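Give me structure tokens for this 705-residue protein.
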Amino acid sequence: MTSTLALPLSAIALILLAGAAHVARELAHGRRPRAGTIAWLAVPVAVLAALGVACGAGLYTGGALELVPPCATALLAAASALLRQRALDALERLGEKNPTAARVARAAVALVAIAGSAVLGFLAVELPYNPTALSIAPGFALIQGLLIAGALTLLYFLFQRHGAGVALGVGACSLIGLAQFFVASFKASAILPNDLFVLGTAAAVSGGYVYSFGATVAQGLACLLAAVALCAPVAPARRASGRAVVRGALVNLACALATLVALWAGVTVPSYFDDLGVGMEYWYTLDYYRKQGFITTFVAVAQDLPIDVPEGYDPATAAETEAAYAATYDETLGAAQGRAAAEAQFAETRPSVVCIMNETFSDLSELAGERWGYTGPSRYRSLSDTLLGGSLDVSVLGGGTCNTEFEFLTGIPLAYVGDGKYPYSLYDLAEAPSLARQFSELGYGTTALHPNFPTNWNRNRVYEALGFDRFLSFDAFDGDPWYHSGVSDEATYDKVLEVLSESDEPQFVFDVTMQNHSSYDQNNLGDVPQYHVDGLSDYDNAHLSEYLACIEESDRALDEFLGRLRELDRPVVVVFFGDHQPALSSILNDALFPDEDPASHSARTYQTTYFVWANYDVAGSDQTGASETTSPAFLAAMAKEAIGAPLTDFQKAQLVARGEMPALSLLGALDAQGAWVGLDDEEALPQAFRDLACMSYLEFAEKLE
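Here you go.
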């Protein structure tokens, strides 16, 4: 018997011996053992038994010394259970002599139990997964402690002032901490509110994991058992009559209702982000949970979930509007001779479609490059046989890749989701519009590629929800060459060609590259051309030069990839776009364009570039590089229209709406005259903005409820 297994078994043996002695003593005095005593005694036995099973199965990875706290607190909980009835009888006797003193004593016992259990519940949540649990900022710790105390108070009254309710609340805290421990261990991420929507999926895949744990989980269990010890003596006074029982129950329910209202106000009235200073970067969810506390941060993220309902929204009316827009498309753009020719060709040739979202790819020559000697990615700019191309107005700068990705794959503009939200982290996208699902329904194989960790931005779950057949992540690129910040663009293009070679059937491939990711002070590219912009520090100019060297390599790899596709004996369409500009663009923009109108000034840095290209002659297109400004949410519909692919009614509506509103982002709407209109300027926004808001809500937010 190992020392780890010996400790919980020894503690169980001591508790059972003490319990047996208690039962024997009660029977010897002609009394039946109290059910409450046995129930409270069973709790530490059950916890120790589970701990013993884990030790015996080799799932406990800590040392024997770390098992002392849960075993010691289990013995304390058992002692409290065995002494519970004596304490309650003493309070009853005090009540016969001095009712007021007895009420005060019971209230004090309950208050100590609730306050102590709130602290222990806090620790039961945090200790298992959070190595910095004791360093959470006091303000955030106070918020979490008050929420736990409120929940325990609610349970206290719901359970008619019995300590069992409070103990169950701490048990829930312990389960939260345990669940977060395993999620952090398996996925290096935090549990988010939207995870509650996919519990079935989580349960289905949970059997593939080994649930081992160490000392931190044992510490969390010790907190639970300590709370059990505190709660065991908490019980109401005996009622003299049935009427008194009913009256007491009603009073307790009224108190529970009041507590619930206060608790609900605590999680809904203040904005945790805006008013209480809670922060969140959805790339680093686990870090923020650890810094701010699980419950505090979870509530903040939950507040961020709802999507505002458009003014005057009605599902039936939105559906009618979408149908009307689709009919308009069919009568106009869809009736064009070129579109008909492209449709017929697409149905016959069924080209593979490769979509490349290139990390931080943008053409900074648009920022007055002639003034500082930069002419842009030369090969990219010389492409003359594209179907479409131009500026892409995005909603993010220097990060937030997943949001450009979300807009492109779903067609849902972030302008209708809300600023500061990351749908990949917040929502279950199983019912969202999906480009991958649309091609899958056409009989295409669908593959997503990203040469990094599959858990980044929850892509492993998101891609499955969006209907991709498979996701090739870090492991699929093992041994492939790196450039700057990750696997090279060229290596991902090799993987795309490999996917295409695996089957003669048409493929839809979505490639999210990595090499150009920040930071740009790595100095790992050797000698690179040096650029100098007046007004920038030497440090920032060095950053700029390193970034542009990355773009040069992306330009070279892309040109080579397109060259290989030209020689490929199968039809392939490429949709290429950059996700955002680098953060240093804002510094460059400020130096080159000072004292500008703020809206126009910002818009320049929220613009990348895109093209749609094919290695075959697309019917109905002269393929001479037609230039159109657009945004990621519209790009998929535009690409599908250009190559003759079937369009959904929503995509048809988007294409019609572009007549009034060519581009839409979180910065605003681009009107038909080329002027940006702020999202808060309701009078100036085109009607298409309001119509598309309702249609987007119908297609996305409506399905989240």
